[in-house]
From TrEMBL:
Gene Ontology biological process terms from the UniProt entry: ethanolamine metabolic process; N-acylethanolamine metabolic process; phospholipid metabolic process
Highest taxon in the source lineage: Bacteria
Protein name according to UniProt: Glycerophosphoryl diester phosphodiesterase
Record-annotated GP-PDE domain positions: 57-298
GO MF entry, a single one: glycerophosphodiester phosphodiesterase activity
Entry GO CC: plasma membrane
Cross-referenced CDD domains: GDPD_AtGDE_like (cd08566)
Cited InterPro entries: GP_PDE_dom, PLC-like_Pdiesterase_TIM-brl
Pfam families referenced in this protein's UniProt entry, alphabetically: GDPD
Length: 316
């Protein structure tokens, strides 16, 4: 039975070393028993991502949140994360030789599948024949999804941030988002202001994740003409000052702190309480390779009541 609990997240307690236990526990969770974020129109998306003092801190699962047995950029991996916490799912999009958009981080297939070759030099038919490998190199039974499959899966379940690989035309990604009606829950990642401007010109209704790491970059962003209510501010891979985060909040923008890499490793060595300090310092979303652990650490910071509460549905 699924019910709303305001903003009380029911998460399974665990330690960082219990990745295998996580996998085993998931096998007993009934299909469909997921924590969800449901945003169904672009006006709701803007309201959700507009910063307020009662905002709900979230995790963003880098490359979908891979764990042992769950490879990166797989729909099954996305669902594994949602069994523990509502989440933003960050995914990577590449394009095959025959112009099919698939989820893949690397230019080549060798690291994450049992295939070989470059994604843009092979056909989708070939990619369909492959299986994904997890981060330990173990073969799984999971297939490489298309972007369209991922977008259709996410509706009513999760918010997405879409990382577009260099060889992929922005227009093709926007076309698939339009085809699937995913405008409200799929935000596009841009690493440069010219890229952000182009994406905004192609799809002015979409949310954009834009890198803004200092005061100079705030100024450069404002020069793009993109409204603040279309931006989620990625503040980089190093913790920013509370004053800087407050500047972004004053413009109504959520902040995403990339804790993947050094900051995640600090949490492993120093304890997951470090994630709490990032949120208390003004990070609204933690982009992490450890979404389950990070979400468990920050669950105590969820406000008892929030203007965002209607967007969340928690597994019982």
């Amino acid at each position: 039975m699924r019910i709303y609990f305001g903003l009380l997240i029911l998460l399974i307690g665990f330690q960082a070393c219990q990745s295998q236990q996580i996998k085993e526990e998931n096998s007993s969770v009934l299909p469909g028993e997921l924590n969800r974020i449901s945003v169904f129109n672009v006006a709701d998306a803007r309201q959700f991502y507009t910063w307020t003092s009662d905002r709900v801190p979230l995790v963003s699962a880098h490359r979908g949140g891979p764990y042992p047995g769950f490879p990166e950029n797989a729909i099954e991996t996305f669902e594994n994360v949602l069994k523990y916490t509502p989440a933003i799912i960050e995914l990577d999009v590449a394009m095959t030789k025959d112009s099919v958009l698939v989820l893949m981080h690397d230019d080549e297939l060798d690291r994450t599948t049992n295939g070989t070759g470059k994604v843009n030099e092979v056909s989708y038919e070939y990619i369909q024949s492959l299986f994904l490998e997890d981060m330990d190199g173990d073969l799984t039974e999971f297939k490489v999804p298309t972007l369209e499959q991922a977008l259709l899966w996410a509706k009513g379940k999760a918010l997405l941030t879409v990382d577009i690989k260099r060889s992929v035309p922005f227009e093709e990604v926007v076309k698939i988002i339009d085809k699937t009606g995913a405008e409200s829950y799929a935000a596009l990642i841009s690493y440069t202001f010219p890229a952000a401007k182009k994406l905004h010109s192609l799809a002015p209704e979409l949310m954009l994740s834009v890198t803004i790491r200092n005061g100079e970059e705030i100024k450069r962003f404002e020069e793009t003409g993109i409204p603040w209510d279309r931006v989620i501010a990625f503040t980089g891979l190093a913790e920013r000052t509370r004053e800087f985060n407050n500047q972004l909040h004053q413009n109504g923008a959520f902040t995403i702190l990339g804790v993947l890499g050094n900051l995640d490793r600090s949490a492993i060595s120093r304890g997951d309480e470090i994630y709490v300090s990032f949120v208390q310092n003004g990070a609204d979303i933690l982009a992490t390779d450890r979404p389950i652990e990070a979400a468990a650490a920050i669950r105590g910071l969820i406000p008892n009541q929030s203007s965002k509460s209607s967007y969340f549905e928690y597994a019982n």
